[in-house]
Design brief:
single chain, Rossmann fold, 12 helices
Length: 416
């Protein structure tokens, strides 16, 4: 028996000769208590999360973690009414592939996770997917681009992001809007960034754009000067940087330090973080980046859902969500929606059945309309080009989602 202790003020009831007569609000509360099973009677389902909470990708991992946590907290009350509680169990992969593997093995064996979510960069996502496939545990990666991962014939790997959205948006914008004739591509050696750079070069060169500088680097290097001098000597108008948040900060600072003038700078990953503006200050003006979601940039038709997410997130964490938080949120919501469907259909909750429901998913989210193709890639993932103008991210491409015009060429450093 569950004992419920209520403290009722005089305004909340009136005393007759018989028992108390509760007001409607109290009746509603008691009704919810009857509908919802007691906490200890709920079927617990473990959702495993693996993200880099320390190491060189800690900032990105923290944002994904917050989005995943928020999704679980948002959906759990609804699932509780159906007798199920999702228990999130997270592990830090320390931005190291070997730690990612160990975390995945622990979650699917000892913790008996129903599914896995999270993951940033494919050097970490790939190893996790191998463990998940062997264990027949669905894995919905929050940030993954490596095209090879969805060409292996795996049945348990899904992701909410993909390479084509980046390729089309960046190449169309550079060639059709900015009409660049000569650019440099600098890229991280991570699998997704390398493939992106190669595809961008192929497309741009076919369109008559010269790419005299095409250079790879290891993410986290401390001096871009030799590469930037190559860019200057080649007379490149624009740098297209397929790199990450910290790399871009350093690259821009060294461009300014050496007074290397460019007409434009487009950083594919990480430029959407508000911290870029905070850390670079005036040097961030006119820089270009890409995003799939920000508080004011959302999938058409999800404006209200986006506002609700931002408001709830701020109440929960005390800050506005970084764009990557929405990627974490979307990956968790995919799993939770599939789980909800299993419960409604009274199908046993296990990995293979959850995998089948993920394959049928059609979920409208602020990030995208999330449907997976037979290989686990999302069908609706798109990127928007943003530019920092007067300390704010302004969407400038594609036309249907633009709220401003791209300012190009950007002025020399001394005139900002």
């Amino acid at each position: 028996m569950i004992q419920i202790s209520l403290s009722l003020h005089r305004e909340g009831y009136k005393k007759e000769k018989g028992p108390f007569f509760r007001v409607p609000a109290v009746l509603a509360f008691l009704g919810m208590m009857v509908l919802a099973p007691p906490a200890d009677a709920l079927q617990e389902v473990v959702l495993g999360e693996i993200n880099p909470l320390t190491g060189r990708f800690a900032a990105q991992g923290a944002a994904l973690h917050q989005g995943i946590s928020y999704a679980v907290e948002e959906v759990n009350p609804r699932l509780a009414l159906k007798g199920v509680k999702v228990a999130p169990v997270f592990r830090d992969d320390e931005s190291k592939p070997e730690r990612a593997v160990a975390a995945a093995e622990e979650l699917v064996t000892r913790e008996r996770a129903l599914a896995l979510v999270g993951g940033y960069v494919d050097s970490l996502v790939g190893p996790i997917s191998e463990v998940a496939e062997r264990a027949k545990v669905p894995y919905v990666a929050s940030a993954s681009l490596d095209e090879r991962l969805t060409q292996r014939g795996y049945h348990y790997f899904f992701r909410v992001s993909s390479l084509p959205g980046y390729i089309k948006t960046t190449t169309d914008f550079l060639s059709e809007v900015l009409k660049v004739k000569n650019l440099a591509i600098l890229y991280s050696t991570t699998p997704g960034a390398t493939q992106l750079a190669q595809r961008q070069r192929e497309i741009l060169e076919k369109r008559g754009v010269k790419v005299p500088v095409f250079e790879a680097f290891t993410s986290g290097i401390v001096d871009f000067t030799p590469l930037l001098i190559k860019v200057r000597e080649a007379g490149a108008e624009v740098i297209l940087s397929d790199a990450f948040f910290a790399d871009h900060l350093l690259m821009v600072r060294q461009l300014q330090e050496h007074r290397i003038y460019l007409k434009g700078f487009l950083g594919t990953f990480g430029m959407e973080f508000p911290a870029v503006i905070k850390r670079l200050g005036k040097a961030s003006e006119y820089l270009l980046g890409t995003t799939s979601w920000e508080p004011e940039i959302t999938t058409p038709g999800t404006e209200e859902a986006s506002r609700a997410f931002v408001e709830g997130f701020k109440r929960r964490f005390g800050v506005e969500p970084d764009p990557l938080a929405m990627h974490g949120y979307a990956s968790a919501r995919a799993v939770l929606a599939a789980l909800d469907s299993l419960i409604d259909k009274k199908i046993p909750v296990n990995g293979p059945n959850l995998r089948e429901e993920l394959g049928k998913l059609d979920l409208l989210l602020p990030l995208e309309r999330l449907k997976f193709d037979p290989n686990g890639d999302p069908l609706g993932y798109e990127r928007v080009v943003i530019q920092i103008q007067k300390g704010k991210h302004v969407p400038v491409y594609p036309p249907g989602r633009a709220r401003g015009r791209a300012l190009y060429p950007m002025p020399p450093w001394e005139k900002r």
